[in-house]
Specification:
single chain; about 90 residues; mainly beta; 4-stranded parallel β-sheet; 3-stranded parallel β-sheet; 1 helix; 7 strands; about 5% helix
Length: about 90
């Protein structure tokens, strides 16, 4: 799949989202981190995303995100948020 991820998807109850190993590009929509309240696994690896990672992604799933895969993209800058928020992902 190619293109960008739209910011207006209404998938609040999604638990597992794997869009890895595609050809998505552009920046990550901040809404994805804010509005996906049940999200526990977010895989966006091996794409062509650029820019910075929105802080909302660290608190996705109401702070209960267990896996976040962002490797092999073109992100830059520091990873956002307080490292205390990463505890669930490091177990």
């Amino acid at each position: 799949m190619t293109g960008t991820i739209p910011g207006n998807m209404n998938l609040r109850q999604m638990y597992y989202m794997d869009l890895g190993r595609n050809q998505f590009s552009g920046t990550l929509p901040p809404e994805l981190g804010d509005e996906y309240v049940r999200l526990r696994h977010l895989h966006l690896d091996f794409n062509q995303f650029s820019g910075t990672v929105p802080q909302s992604y660290i608190l996705a799933g109401n702070g209960r995100l267990m896996t976040l895969r962002l490797n092999d993209n073109q992100f830059y800058g520091a990873f956002p948020g307080n490292h205390e928020n990463y505890k669930m992902m490091c177990k």
